[in-house]
Amino acid sequence: LGVVGIMNLAHGDLLSLGTYIVYQFAVNTGMDPLVSIIPAFFLLFILGVVIYKLTVTRVLKAGHLNQLLLTFGISMIVLELMKVIWTTRPRSVYVDYSSSSTTIAGVRFGTYELLYVVLAFAVLIALQLFLKKTRLGQATFAVGQNPRGAKIVGINTDFVYLFVFGLSVAILGIAAGVMVPRFAIFPSVGAAFTMKSFSLVAMAGLGNLTGILISGIVLGVGEAIVQSIPGYAGWSDIVFFGVLIAVIMIRSLRRQSL
């Protein structure tokens, strides 16, 4: 939901599209996937702006059902276009450092895993600085808190919605650049991440970047621990969503007791 107030069911498919963009840059130009984040970011930002202008603006004041149907339709269109253009055959990109390791304080870590942890922290810090230190970021925060009040004091809410939606799609380019060397690339690769991203937001609360970071670490570590147990690797998603259900139930009980 967030600032724009729309649950984007196409988020995972747009992530898949981002992986194909990174893949094409890597294959056609020899560009490192992490460097390909830059063009993927801007291309997806433009795509997000186009989607917002052509479709999302028409359902902003409609009910959530219409918004869900719209984003579901966009999801299906993007998914089928990827199948037509790239087929369903899995693709992959290999980089040398994806299999190397780094030792810190006597503990060995995968070099690539360290890189994307650092990148994730960098993105969160950049978003925090943007929201707190820039006029556009402060306007975005204001619109998220009180759209009507923000409009009264002269903030261009239409531009803020446009920018935020474009940025939300553009950030998928960063995730795609990180995913490509580690995951097989196919049209539905981003589907699982849609539900997990919604789960993190549900646990942390809308607009709570620190909470999202903590929730991501807790759920990620829990998922990794379950996957490391012989014979229980398939239970990782059950644990992930089980924790989400538990948190929602606890919150509901707290509200009822107040």
Description:
This protein has 258 residues and is mainly alpha-helical. It folds into 2 domains: 189 residues, no CATH class; 69 residues, no CATH class. 69% of the residues lie in helices and 3% in strands. A two-stranded antiparallel sheet has the order 1-2. Helix 1 packs antiparallel against helix 2 and helix 1 runs parallel beside helix 3. The protein is globular, with a radius of gyration of 19 Å.
Task: Put the structure in a nutshell.
This protein is mostly helical and 258 residues long.
- CA-atom Rg in angstroms: 19 Å
Number of DSSP E strands: 2
Categorize the overall geometry.
globular
Q: Which structural class best describes the helix and strand composition?
A: mainly alpha
The protein's oligomeric status is single chain
Whole-Å distance between the termini? 26 Å
* Count of alpha and pi helical runs: 10
Q: Assess the beta-strand content as a share of residues.
A: under 5%
What is the string of SSEs from the N terminus onward? HHHEEHHHHHHH
In helices, the fraction of residues equals 55-70%
Could you give a short account of the major beta sheet? 2 strands, antiparallel
Mean pLDDT: 86
Low-confidence stretches: none
Count of spatially separate domains:
2
Spatial order of strands in the largest sheet: 1-2
Which secondary structure elements does this structure contain, and how are they paired or packed?
Blueprint: H1 11-29, H2 37-54, H3 64-86, E1 101-104, E2 107-110, H4 111-133, H5 135-145, H6 147-152, H7 157-179, H8 191-204, H9 209-228, H10 236-257
Antiparallel strand pairs: 1-2
